[in-house]
Amino acid sequence: xxxxxxxxxxxxxxxxxxxxxxxxxxxxxxxxxxxxxxxxxxxxxxxxxxxxxxxxxxxxxxxxxxxxxxxxxxxxxxxxxxxxxxxxxxxxxxx
Length: 95
Fold this sequence. Notes:
Largest sheet: 5 strands, mixed
Order of helices and strands: EEEEHEH
Structural class: alpha+beta
Number of helices: 2
Domain N-acetyltransferase: 1-95, 7-94
Protein name: N-acetyltransferase
Pfam family, one: Acetyltransf_CG
Organism: Chryseobacterium pyrolae
Radius of gyration: 12 Å
Distance between the termini: 34 Å
Strand content: 35-45%
């Protein structure tokens, strides 16, 4: 099971994924004003490729955005492609 923890400060943040206590990946973001953040990088450890780690972190970011009335700007190629594939996640994108 994948556990995702969020780290956040006034300018930057990340969603880190852990599997069995080991870091499996990280998705970083930068705040772009009060109401939105830019997902700028997604990285999955090689041993966890193909296990849905990136998607789990993206879902955590979407959940955070929805609960806090924030919008997402996906600059990272992985996040951008994931949003394009999943119409049900697009409500959190900046128009």
